[in-house]
Amino acid sequence: MRRPRVPYFETSIKCYIYGEVELAYARACERAAVHHDVDILFISSYTNLKTIAETCPHLFVIAPYMDNMRPGRGMGMVLPESLQAAGAAGVVINHCEKPMTLSDVKGCIDRCRELEMLSFVCANTTEEAMAIAQLHPDIINPEPSQLIGTGKSADMEYVTRTVKAIKMIDGTILTEIAAGIRHPEDVYRYIIAGSDAAGASSGILQADDPEKLLNEMVAAVKRAALELQGTHHQEGIL
Q: Are 207 and 197 in contact (CB under 8 A)?
């Protein structure tokens, strides 16, 4: 399974855009990923997932949801194998707008592992993130659900406390803070504070110039990466 290099950036279209506009946004993300040499997770629609996966090779194209099921009966459900066949690199699990029981969260993580897709699991509180960490997903996106789409970002105490709690349970889990991010500086400071990534959806898509803001946020990821590399180099010398 291919995993994103850290720090990385994540963005989602949710239901803000669709059709050709979504494809244009995916192409903008592809250009940003190449230009800044930063991995980008792109949470697509179901309808454009295959096209984006085939035309944007530098993106990790992630499906927005799947059901805990196997091939067979299930009219209207989202089959994990169908997402894999379409080219999905991973799946979002337990977003606050598509919540799951802990049993289904575990089942979906297990199915992702079986199909070699990234399990991208959302959590609301530090306590929920700790419970999900016990299931060993690839990525945990801990974000207070009341902040999503509000333009208000998570406070640094929540970020450092939650990232530390997840890493103490399983240091291989990637962590990402995304709720309410509208400014490149938020991206930078979350990564410097210990998050493996940052992301934004409505903050970009509702901006006056979405591609400009996207590039500024991805540039902030690169700036944080270079600063962290410099810090680690200095620590090695000392």
A: no
**Residue range 105-131, pLDDT digits in tens:** 999 999 999 999 999 999 988 999 999
- Cβ count near 142 (within 10 Å): 29
Provide CATH code, domain 8-237: 3.20.20.70
For the question of whether the overall pTM of this predicted structure is more than 0.85, the answer is: yes
Domain boundaries, the chain: 8-237
Work out the burial of residue 141: count CB atoms within 10 Å of its CB; fewer than 13 is exposed, 13-18 middle, 19 or more buried. Answer: buried
How do residues 40-99 score in pLDDT, each as one tens digit?
999 999 999 999 999 999 999 999 999 999 999 999 999 999 999 999 999 999 999 999
By the 8 A CB rule, do 189 and 9 touch? no
